[in-house]
Protein: Homoserine dehydrogenase
Organism: Parasporobacterium paucivorans DSM 15970
Amino acid sequence: MINIAVLGYGTVGSGIIEVLNTNGDSINKKAGEEINVKYVLDLRDFPGDPVQDKIVHDFNVILSDPEIEIIAEVMGGAEPAYTFVKAALQHKKSVCTSNKELVAKYGPELLEIARQNKRNFLFEASVGGGIPIIRPLNQSLTADEITKITGVLNGTSNYILTKMSKEGMEFKDALKQAQEFGYAERNPDADILGYDSTRKIAILASLAFGMSADYEDIYTEGITKITDKDFLYANSMGLSIKLFAKAEKVDSKFYAMVAPAMIDDNHPLHSVNGVFNGILVNGNVIGDVMFYGSGAGKLPTASAVVADIVDAVKHLNVNIMSHWSSKKLEFTDIRQSKKQFFVRIKGLAKDKLAEVEKAFGKVQLVELDELKDEFGFITSIMTEEAFEEAQNETQGIITRIRIEG
Amino acid sequence: MINIAVLGYGTVGSGIIEVLNTNGDSINKKAGEEINVKYVLDLRDFPGDPVQDKIVHDFNVILSDPEIEIIAEVMGGAEPAYTFVKAALQHKKSVCTSNKELVAKYGPELLEIARQNKRNFLFEASVGGGIPIIRPLNQSLTADEITKITGVLNGTSNYILTKMSKEGMEFKDALKQAQEFGYAERNPDADILGYDSTRKIAILASLAFGMSADYEDIYTEGITKITDKDFLYANSMGLSIKLFAKAEKVDSKFYAMVAPAMIDDNHPLHSVNGVFNGILVNGNVIGDVMFYGSGAGKLPTASAVVADIVDAVKHLNVNIMSHWSSKKLEFTDIRQSKKQFFVRIKGLAKDKLAEVEKAFGKVQLVELDELKDEFGFITSIMTEEAFEEAQNETQGIITRIRIEG
């Protein structure tokens, strides 16, 4: 029997208990050992709940119990998670976490402590909820040099964008609906401003490129400026708009960004709708591989944590994660990266096209019958820097959205 | 240094050498050892090729060399692959294979021999080419009871169907083009009649349900009867037609089949086009997860074999695959399984609808302006058996295609 402790009895924590209760027999068989939840750490009590007897309020009870081999940390936030996890690993307890903030901020340090102690620090659930992506990157795509990772990594913003696209809703109404359905938090900033995606792409970039990506270095733009009019254009062109997270290596330089992007219907992420996530990985020999599934939610996330627990049981004293180097992954300013841009501008094409093409070079017009006092255009491929310069030379630009191929 | 041997210097075999040459440094780093190809087994010689010095014609040279720790078997076919692989495992050499026939036919036996010898029998490349699916099923989705696996598992037939759908090509022209581009073999039967998909879904079903699925028990229907007219109907309804491979557990009964199916644009496999493969896994806690990528091709397949080699190096004396039980997975006759059907029938709806609804119950009409002397309809959900009975009572049915949700 392997004794474990769960830190945090919130959504994911109670999901872990539910998954272990539901599939305990097959899970124990796959782990080769019976998994027993000995403690659940929470500040609250849960009278009447079956876990009440296992609730402890003091982490030191867990830390000092030599029977505890594995700890599932699902509290979220940097502290006290970091202090607890570090101490656990130093006390030779493996840790499985769903905490993207913890991994994005302290990943290399915690992986190194795990390695030194011949234990494991596993974090499948920190990116893409239940979608297997960390383990495939770590163990399956080992024959490849990863050249690019793009993802729809935030279910909340993707739900909002999908509602705007399919039902013509305005941003604020779609956000309100997402909140009503529990897909968005009361303070949705981390999701809709892109920061959640930034932390996740930093984790994926670190794993893919083997160095420490600092999420604070990553250009981040949220979805709050996307309007129903943008979707009129996108739909007319057969494009979808996604909050795109991207990390890539081009000519030995690394670029990363999070921003809304238009993608066409040949793109594997085009049909990632609603609260689903999709992660597209490009390797230099395997080509494109995509992973798709529920990016959040109690049970999918708990499923990923429990799968990590099973792996930790099977590798009690063997370190299995590739650790990424603590060397900083230096991103090149995205102003040097190249792409096409979609631009909306006030006025009539017949009056403004000459001015536009003087600044941007040859463009492709997108005019909509519904919108009489503006028009759209698509630029040729240009650097972000050249785009900015052209934008500054042009009057009346309403918005611009990047186009990703 | 770890010495390996490659059995077969065809497409995948030469791909393995190319992948090791291209990404050798990073592969060795991830493996923690330098991987050295000591032998390549082939009946032919390759004068002038860098591998010529490593070519051997006699498998016993490899088998009897104690320096060889791992063997990559990429010859294809049941024999002599089975004899070689069995002997290799008995001689305590791990085996990594891309050979779906071998795995579908001898999987449980070879896994058991590997386990007894504390070596590994790995076969990521046998299903879905480069797509990580075997390892995720084995190691990532361990918290779940898998309830259903559906897949577009054959790139050749999917290429043909995509050409028919997008360009209105007829079957024979699309097949000819696939052969010209090297996507279909001169004898394409295994692909277009569905047998390739059947072997692959048998492997996935065995892993997912932990028992041995015999591919000969699986109902198989190819794509040779699909016509451009079927696509007129499908496109008018926004549906795509895929060669669908499916294995599922419903009320403790197992069903499996390979057959063309219509799916709507909310289905994650809807946009798996061309030579790509997609595999959708449903687990009882994780929900839907999809894996997508190149289902075949020299380098993607070689990438999967090399990733297995890396895993075999990291687990030289540790058995890591869940072995499925040799207990036979008993499939229930698909005549008991339920779904909707799309049917094309000669005549005019106004003349025939009463007869149709007498046999099938209420149906949903699909009439096309282009096709004057026939019409289509969609049945309600019914068993295959009830469908057959109704079909036998009805005159003039041209074809039927299952609809999958």
In short: The mean pLDDT of chain A is 95. Chain A touches chain B through 52 residues (CB under 8 Å). The domain at 335-403 of chain A is CATH 3.30.70.1150 (Alpha-Beta Plaits).
